[in-house]
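Batch manifest, entry 17 of 40.
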Amino acid sequence: MKFSCFKSDLVSAVSNVSRAVSTKATIPALEGVLIKAYGEKLNISGYNLEIGITTDIEATIAAEGEIVVSAKLFLDIIRRLPEEIVSVETDERMVTYITSGHANYQIVGISSVEYPDLPSFDQMDYIKINAKELREMIRQTVYAVSENMAKPIYTGSLFELEHGTFRIVAVDGCRMAIRNESVDNDCETSFVVPGKTQQEVLKLLTNDEDEIEIIVGKRHIMFKIKNYRVISRLIEGTFLDYRTTVPTETKTEIVINTRILIEALERMTPLNSERMQSPVRCVLSNDEIKLSCASTVGKANDVISIPIIGEEVEVGFNNKYMLDALKNTDTDEVKIIFNGSINPVIIKPVEGDSFLNIVALMRLANEN
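Output type: structure tokens
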């Protein structure tokens, strides 16, 4: 194999596909990237048996072939090359020669025969969506994906398509995030995409208007993002019937500036740690929200003046969970609905139904 290409293209491609490379694998080839040089394209892939990322870049191919090289070593080398043109050549002993300007390297490669094939599957469903919309949908829900492997189904998000609405739902037992977008698609389907896969897709998505293709099979999914393809297994199992868990009553309601509430809650944060979360006490009465937090390191209090509709209520919640929900709304104002001191809090837009965030409440100790 022998090819030359632009350093910037090669660095970008290897850097992105390397996120799907295993750092410690029983199969040595999985710690590398697979490089295939055929025709006028260079195909570069990373795969860890769960997620695969592959892309094509322009290259001048002098001799076709393929090789697996250490992802970390290869990336470290090409990032430091002095010139914009990079030449790569391999011999029959799998030695790979990398040249740029006066700099040259020799590294040992692995035969591509030892590299597992990326999954191939038959298309069952197809979704096309704007890149910016998909980026926001994933970003605003993936924070609520569970990290508890005791229930694998919730380590992913439910992707649901029905009646022209594309929906992503994430739940971890303490909170739930739902995000909706209208799409030009009359199909009805649902599947569960791993949270890790969504994080990798998110890193490749931009804030532009490009169309993203989502190709769904029985057990796998592929995201086509510009010249990248992310292939992942789906999570099998029965996802929560989220519709039955959304509270339907409204006993207390407020409409509040999102930034003002976030800043007030962040003033409670210094008293909490990742290891030990003391509940934030929230009392809604007399057109005021009284916030307080007490932990082993001290106490904090704050007050926000805001019109309150409905009953007076006192609740306690995990400050981090509430902040996560608010920071992922991306609206200037939110409507927050309370249904007593036990039922979860609902956060939604003032108008429309583009998102719905639910945060479970914590039990409060008697202050007296």
